[in-house]
């Protein structure tokens, strides 16, 4: 019994230590992998760092700036329907500014602060990227190009940007606003937080209303399926109008039985004519097929 209790206590101790909140880590001891790519084994990463090389078109460093960016769940509380966010959603700097970003992750998961669209001759893959796994801080530096441009800054972890972790960074005047930046620009697809249930679900129909709707639907189906006046019908009506005077003269003075007999006789003659016509056509086609080819 004592042995079992000791095993349970030991298991609980191990599990609690495994799921304990991670201590805040300042990622400063990073290995340099070249091309501005720095990382450590504790989940810290910098990609595309550039502290010295001026982008083309920049004669000098126009300004030296430093910002601290926080990322976490608590910053999304002011944006309904969002789960993650940065503490700030918009930045603006002069062209050719040298910027140091101190990126602080306040959550116990992985977050990033990433920019795309930088000149690839200077920034591999056109990207500047800061990343921290769990609570911690990491810093990186870059130099902006001289163009007026608006850059998307976001977390590239799956669904983090869609859930609110994005901002825009303008160089100079920028190149316009980006859509769906929380608290800055309107969403491309607006969220819907209606509390009311649709009337069609909230208010069930009575039996009388159901019967009425069913009858209306049946009538609609009948109207849709009812064929329009066909060409054959029009031809039949025209033929009837033309033959009516002739038939009236022919049947004038006849009894009902005589009229019926005459009609059947006329139908028999018509059928015989059609059969004779078809037979003649078949014979003509057959004779052409069996005709001998001329000798050379």
Which sheet architecture does the biggest sheet show?
Answer: 8 strands, mixed
Helix and strand element order:
HEEEEEEEEEEEEEHHHH
Q: What's the CATH first level of the domain at 20-171?
A: Mainly Beta
Annotated CATH architecture of the domain at 20-171:
Sandwich
The chain-level mean pLDDT equals 82
The separation of the N and C termini measures 115 Å
CATH superfamily (homologous) name of the domain at 20-171: Cupredoxins -  blue copper proteins
What is the count of helical runs? 5
Q: Unreliable segments (pLDDT under 50, ≥5 consecutive)?
A: 13-19
> Number of DSSP strands?
13
Notable traits:
296 residues; alpha+beta; Immunoglobulin-like; five-stranded mixed beta sheet; 5 helices; 13 strands; elongated
3D architecture notes:
It is built from five helices and 13 strands. With about 300 residues, the protein is an alpha+beta fold. Among the domains are: about 20-170, Sandwich (Immunoglobulin-like), CATH 2.60.40.420; about 230-270. An eight-stranded mixed sheet has the order 2-3-4-10-9-12-13-7, with no helix packed on it. A five-stranded mixed sheet has the order 1-11-8-5-6, with no helix packed on it. A hairpin with a 5-residue loop joins β2 and β3 (about 40). It is elongated and about 120 Å long. It starts with a helix and ends in a 6-residue tail after the last helix.
